[in-house]
Amino acid sequence: MLSHSVFSVVPIAIFGGTKLAVAATSGSFSILSMNVAGLPSILQTNDVPGDKATNAGTIGSDFAKYGYDVINVQEDFNYHAYIYATDNHTYRTATSGGAGIGSGLNTLANFDWIDYTRIGWDDCSDASGDDCLTPKGFTFMRTVVDSGVYIDMYDIHADAGTEAGDETARNSNLAQVAAYIDTWSAGNAVLVFGDTNSRYTRTEDNIGIFASQNGLTDAWLQLERGGVVPTVESLCDNPSTTNDCETVDKVFYRGNAIVQLSATYFNYESSKFVQADGDILSDHNPITVDFDWKLSTTLRQSDFWGGPHGDWFSDLTTLSTRASPKASVLTFRGGARLDSVGLTLADGTSFVHGGTGGTQVQLSLAASEYWTSAVLCQGTKDSHTRNFYIKAMTSTGRTLTTGTTTNDCATFTAPSGWQIVGFLGQDGDEMDQLGFIFAPQ
């Protein structure tokens, strides 16, 4: 399934100015998760017949053939190059190395991203095998599905096995991802998909943590089981001829106050990923989910400017509880660079992000005056891209500026009839990355 979008004409940010452009308010996309059985054949056959290099090439050509929008792979170790040689996705992560060196986690996508991080597990167990032999873990990327449409996507490969030590390690793995989501995806739409090595009947794993702690929905539970958690283990054949059985490969998701996400289709894609003679290509059933997305009518966001450094922050969670928010006071700090941004809403709610350096500037808005657009300029400091300058412009033509201009600037304008009411991005002592939250006037 290829992604598609429903469009309307609204102003969006461009380099060095603002123009009218086509931006989507709704659309759809497809994802796939597949453990590609890429351990060296001398170490692990995965009970898959045939030559692993040849099989990897077939997997890559199938990725290209079926056109999934985002593909997370696991165990992509020593045959990585064969997959990429036959795949045609525009955006692909670089390998972190073969078995014993890399995590085996990679993503192939039709969408770009603005941040990508690999995180190793805090705990592992060799109780049932050699899970500690290679640095498994999870990856994070902030995926740009469309202008102003961002989804934090996680690829995961948890500790394997069913011994007590394995379940303890896997419980720790899942809890580590859940904690990371709470910190780095606060307020954001999220997708977690990969090889969890867990089933709901393995209660010590606590696979339900993504629902209980992060508010994520299991697409398989939702679409195939009516939300009913299995209490009796039901193993899948490979290839699987039914979606009723449970695999360790899973997809979890949530939307946010800006992007409504709906899972519309789930399937084990086993019959699509076979060798020429019909044999399997992996010891895992690949899984796919189709999603519809739709922008909110009450809150939206701009794209980002600056670099993915510092701590994540978002005013979305607070703004989602406010009826008809309106900025009444803008407060910035700056000097050589942009130190902080802040605003106070008409109801007294205050947002401040960044450090305490620089000189403070402030602008109070009239009752019928709105913050409608902003210019940001970015530059490099200590090898990190940061925001150096901001210029706020109101509906009456008044402005507030601070910082130092550069030759790398962009203008962010609220859609017609909307206003800027908050921020999201990453900060430290200064403003590393910045985006704006819009609400109707």
Automatic annotation (TrEMBL):
InterPro entries the record matches: Endo/exonu/phosph_ase_sf (IPR036691), IPPc (IPR000300), Jacalin-like_lectin_dom (IPR001229), Jacalin-like_lectin_dom_sf (IPR036404), Sph/SMPD2-like (IPR038772)
Using the record's annotation, list all stretches that form the Jacalin-type lectin domain: 299-440
Q: Mind telling me which SUPFAM superfamilies this protein's record contains?
A: DNase I-like (SSF56219), Mannose-binding lectins (SSF51101)
- The signal peptide annotation in the UniProt record is none
Superkingdom in the source lineage: Eukaryota
Tell me one Pfam family matched here. Exo_endo_phos2
Q: What is this protein called?
A: Jacalin-type lectin domain-containing protein
